[in-house]
Protein backbone atom coordinates (compact mmCIF):
# COMPACT_ATOMS: atom_id res chain seq x y z
CA UNK A 1 0.00 0.00 0.00
CA UNK A 2 1.47 3.35 -1.02
CA UNK A 3 0.10 6.83 -0.71
CA UNK A 4 0.88 10.47 -1.20
CA UNK A 5 -0.49 13.62 0.35
CA UNK A 6 -2.53 16.07 -1.66
CA UNK A 7 -4.15 19.37 -0.93
CA UNK A 8 -5.97 20.09 2.34
CA UNK A 9 -8.77 22.59 1.72
CA UNK A 10 -10.23 24.93 4.31
CA UNK A 11 -14.02 25.36 4.28
CA UNK A 12 -13.57 28.70 2.47
CA UNK A 13 -11.41 26.96 -0.16
CA UNK A 14 -14.08 24.28 -0.60
CA UNK A 15 -16.88 26.82 -0.91
CA UNK A 16 -14.87 28.68 -3.56
CA UNK A 17 -14.15 25.39 -5.37
CA UNK A 18 -17.90 24.74 -5.67
CA UNK A 19 -18.49 28.32 -6.78
CA UNK A 20 -15.76 28.01 -9.44
CA UNK A 21 -17.26 24.74 -10.68
CA UNK A 22 -20.72 26.34 -10.97
CA UNK A 23 -19.33 29.40 -12.77
CA UNK A 24 -17.51 27.06 -15.17
CA UNK A 25 -20.66 25.02 -15.89
CA UNK A 26 -22.73 28.16 -16.46
CA UNK A 27 -20.11 29.80 -18.70
CA UNK A 28 -19.83 26.63 -20.80
CA UNK A 29 -23.57 25.87 -21.02
CA UNK A 30 -24.72 29.44 -21.67
CA UNK A 31 -21.85 30.79 -23.79
CA UNK A 32 -19.72 27.80 -24.86
CA UNK A 33 -16.75 29.38 -23.11
CA UNK A 34 -14.09 28.11 -20.74
CA UNK A 35 -14.13 30.00 -17.45
CA UNK A 36 -10.71 31.19 -16.27
CA UNK A 37 -10.03 30.58 -12.56
CA UNK A 38 -8.83 34.19 -12.24
CA UNK A 39 -6.80 35.05 -9.16
CA UNK A 40 -6.93 31.74 -7.34
CA UNK A 41 -6.85 30.91 -3.68
CA UNK A 42 -3.42 29.60 -2.62
CA UNK A 43 -4.64 25.99 -2.35
CA UNK A 44 -5.80 26.05 -5.98
CA UNK A 45 -2.19 26.24 -7.21
CA UNK A 46 -1.50 22.76 -5.79
CA UNK A 47 -1.19 20.07 -8.46
CA UNK A 48 -3.72 17.41 -7.57
CA UNK A 49 -6.79 15.61 -8.88
CA UNK A 50 -10.42 16.62 -8.44
CA UNK A 51 -13.90 15.59 -9.50
CA UNK A 52 -17.03 17.60 -10.21
CA UNK A 53 -20.50 16.09 -9.90
CA UNK A 54 -23.75 17.63 -11.18
CA UNK A 55 -27.11 16.40 -9.91
CA UNK A 56 -30.58 17.40 -11.03
CA UNK A 57 -33.18 18.20 -8.37
CA UNK A 58 -36.04 17.77 -10.87
CA UNK A 59 -38.45 14.90 -10.28
CA UNK A 60 -36.73 12.10 -8.38
CA UNK A 61 -33.35 13.66 -9.07
CA UNK A 62 -30.59 12.13 -11.12
CA UNK A 63 -26.90 12.35 -11.86
CA UNK A 64 -26.47 14.78 -14.75
CA UNK A 65 -22.72 14.65 -15.04
CA UNK A 66 -19.54 13.62 -13.31
CA UNK A 67 -15.97 14.11 -14.47
CA UNK A 68 -12.42 14.53 -13.27
CA UNK A 69 -9.50 12.38 -12.27
CA UNK A 70 -7.65 11.33 -9.14
CA UNK A 71 -4.24 12.22 -10.56
CA UNK A 72 -3.31 15.35 -12.37
CA UNK A 73 -0.21 17.39 -13.11
CA UNK A 74 -2.40 20.48 -13.45
CA UNK A 75 -3.18 23.09 -10.81
CA UNK A 76 -6.34 22.35 -8.84
CA UNK A 77 -8.13 25.50 -10.06
CA UNK A 78 -7.73 24.44 -13.69
CA UNK A 79 -8.63 20.81 -12.93
CA UNK A 80 -11.94 21.98 -11.37
CA UNK A 81 -12.76 24.15 -14.42
CA UNK A 82 -12.00 21.34 -16.88
CA UNK A 83 -13.89 18.71 -14.85
CA UNK A 84 -16.94 21.02 -14.56
CA UNK A 85 -17.03 21.55 -18.33
CA UNK A 86 -16.63 17.85 -19.03
CA UNK A 87 -19.39 17.01 -16.51
CA UNK A 88 -21.75 19.41 -18.31
CA UNK A 89 -20.86 18.10 -21.77
CA UNK A 90 -22.53 15.28 -23.65
CA UNK A 91 -19.50 13.06 -23.00
CA UNK A 92 -20.41 12.60 -19.33
CA UNK A 93 -23.95 11.22 -19.00
CA UNK A 94 -24.98 11.03 -22.63
CA UNK A 95 -26.58 14.45 -23.09
CA UNK A 96 -25.25 17.96 -22.64
CA UNK A 97 -26.66 20.05 -19.79
CA UNK A 98 -29.05 22.67 -21.24
CA UNK A 99 -29.44 26.28 -20.00
CA UNK A 100 -32.96 25.49 -18.71
CA UNK A 101 -31.50 22.84 -16.37
CA UNK A 102 -29.07 25.19 -14.59
CA UNK A 103 -31.55 26.43 -11.93
CA UNK A 104 -32.19 22.78 -10.95
CA UNK A 105 -28.61 21.57 -10.69
CA UNK A 106 -26.59 21.10 -7.53
CA UNK A 107 -22.81 21.14 -7.86
CA UNK A 108 -20.29 19.25 -5.76
CA UNK A 109 -16.49 19.11 -5.86
CA UNK A 110 -14.21 16.38 -4.53
CA UNK A 111 -10.58 17.48 -4.09
CA UNK A 112 -8.22 14.51 -3.93
CA UNK A 113 -6.01 14.25 -0.86
CA UNK A 114 -4.35 10.86 -0.60
CA UNK A 115 -3.97 8.29 -3.37
CA UNK A 116 -3.50 4.69 -2.22
CA UNK A 117 -2.48 1.84 -4.51
CA UNK A 118 -3.80 -1.30 -2.87
CA UNK A 119 -3.40 -5.03 -3.43
CA UNK A 120 -6.13 -5.79 -0.86
CA UNK A 121 -8.97 -3.34 -1.63
CA UNK A 122 -11.54 -5.04 0.58
CA UNK A 123 -9.27 -4.70 3.64
CA UNK A 124 -7.97 -1.21 2.84
CA UNK A 125 -11.22 0.42 1.72
CA UNK A 126 -12.80 2.74 4.27
CA UNK A 127 -16.40 3.43 3.26
CA UNK A 128 -17.22 7.14 3.27
CA UNK A 129 -13.52 8.06 3.18
CA UNK A 130 -12.26 6.47 -0.02
CA UNK A 131 -13.25 6.88 -3.63
CA UNK A 132 -12.41 3.91 -5.85
CA UNK A 133 -10.83 3.80 -9.31
CA UNK A 134 -10.25 0.61 -11.31
CA UNK A 135 -8.07 0.18 -14.39
CA UNK A 136 -7.78 -2.98 -16.43
CA UNK A 137 -7.93 -4.24 -20.01
CA UNK A 138 -7.80 -0.69 -21.37
CA UNK A 139 -10.92 0.23 -19.40
CA UNK A 140 -11.23 2.44 -16.35
CA UNK A 141 -13.90 3.79 -14.06
CA UNK A 142 -14.26 5.51 -10.71
CA UNK A 143 -16.85 6.45 -8.11
CA UNK A 144 -16.99 9.32 -5.62
CA UNK A 145 -16.28 8.66 -1.89
CA UNK A 146 -19.83 9.65 -0.87
CA UNK A 147 -21.63 7.31 -3.32
CA UNK A 148 -21.61 4.06 -1.26
CA UNK A 149 -22.83 5.87 1.86
CA UNK A 150 -25.64 7.58 -0.07
CA UNK A 151 -26.73 4.22 -1.51
CA UNK A 152 -26.12 1.98 1.51
CA UNK A 153 -23.60 -0.23 -0.31
CA UNK A 154 -21.16 -2.63 1.32
CA UNK A 155 -17.46 -2.39 0.45
CA UNK A 156 -17.78 -5.38 -1.87
CA UNK A 157 -20.80 -3.86 -3.66
CA UNK A 158 -18.94 -0.55 -4.02
CA UNK A 159 -15.99 -2.33 -5.68
CA UNK A 160 -18.33 -4.38 -7.89
CA UNK A 161 -20.20 -1.29 -9.06
CA UNK A 162 -17.00 0.63 -9.81
CA UNK A 163 -15.93 -2.26 -12.03
CA UNK A 164 -19.31 -2.26 -13.75
CA UNK A 165 -19.00 1.48 -14.37
CA UNK A 166 -15.65 0.79 -16.05
CA UNK A 167 -17.29 -1.80 -18.32
CA UNK A 168 -15.58 -4.67 -16.50
CA UNK A 169 -17.18 -7.72 -14.85
CA UNK A 170 -18.30 -6.85 -11.29
CA UNK A 171 -15.67 -9.05 -9.61
CA UNK A 172 -12.80 -7.77 -11.80
CA UNK A 173 -11.29 -5.91 -8.83
CA UNK A 174 -10.12 -9.32 -7.57
CA UNK A 175 -8.11 -10.00 -10.76
CA UNK A 176 -4.33 -9.65 -10.66
CA UNK A 177 -4.23 -7.61 -13.88
CA UNK A 178 -6.75 -5.01 -12.65
CA UNK A 179 -5.30 -2.08 -10.71
CA UNK A 180 -7.44 -0.76 -7.86
CA UNK A 181 -6.66 2.72 -6.55
CA UNK A 182 -8.27 4.25 -3.49
CA UNK A 183 -8.32 8.00 -3.10
CA UNK A 184 -9.36 10.17 -0.20
CA UNK A 185 -11.23 13.29 -1.08
CA UNK A 186 -12.70 16.32 0.58
CA UNK A 187 -16.22 16.76 -0.74
CA UNK A 188 -18.03 20.09 -0.75
CA UNK A 189 -21.50 20.52 -2.23
CA UNK A 190 -24.41 22.90 -2.59
CA UNK A 191 -27.32 22.16 -0.26
CA UNK A 192 -29.69 23.34 -2.97
CA UNK A 193 -29.10 24.73 -6.49
CA UNK A 194 -26.76 27.74 -6.30
CA UNK A 195 -27.27 27.70 -2.52
CA UNK A 196 -25.06 27.50 0.55
CA UNK A 197 -22.22 24.99 0.60
CA UNK A 198 -21.61 22.18 3.09
CA UNK A 199 -18.69 19.83 3.60
CA UNK A 200 -19.77 16.21 3.46
Task: Explain what the structure shows.
This protein has 200 residues and is an alpha+beta fold. It contains six helices and eight strands. Strands 1, 2, 3, 4, 5, 6, 7 and 8 form an eight-stranded antiparallel sheet that branches. The mean pLDDT is 90.
Based on DSSP secondary structure assignment, what is the total number of beta strands? 8
Query: What oligomeric arrangement do these chains adopt?
Result: single chain
Percent range of helical residues: 25-40%
* SSE-based structural type: alpha+beta
Q: Approximately what portion of the residues adopt beta-strand conformation?
A: 25-35%
Count helical runs. Answer: 6
Could you give a short account of the major beta sheet? 8 strands, antiparallel
The poorly predicted ranges are none
Give the averaged pLDDT, no decimals: 90
- Overall morphology: globular
Question: What is the string of SSEs from the N terminus onward?
Answer: EHEEHHEHEEHHEE
- Report the span from N to C terminus: 26 Å
Gyration radius, in Å:
16 Å
Amino acid sequence: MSQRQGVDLSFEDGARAVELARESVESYVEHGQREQPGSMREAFYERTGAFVRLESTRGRGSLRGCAGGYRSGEQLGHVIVDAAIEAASGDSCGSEVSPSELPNLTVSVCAVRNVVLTDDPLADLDLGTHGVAVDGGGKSGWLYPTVPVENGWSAREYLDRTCRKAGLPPSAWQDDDVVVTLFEGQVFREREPDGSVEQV
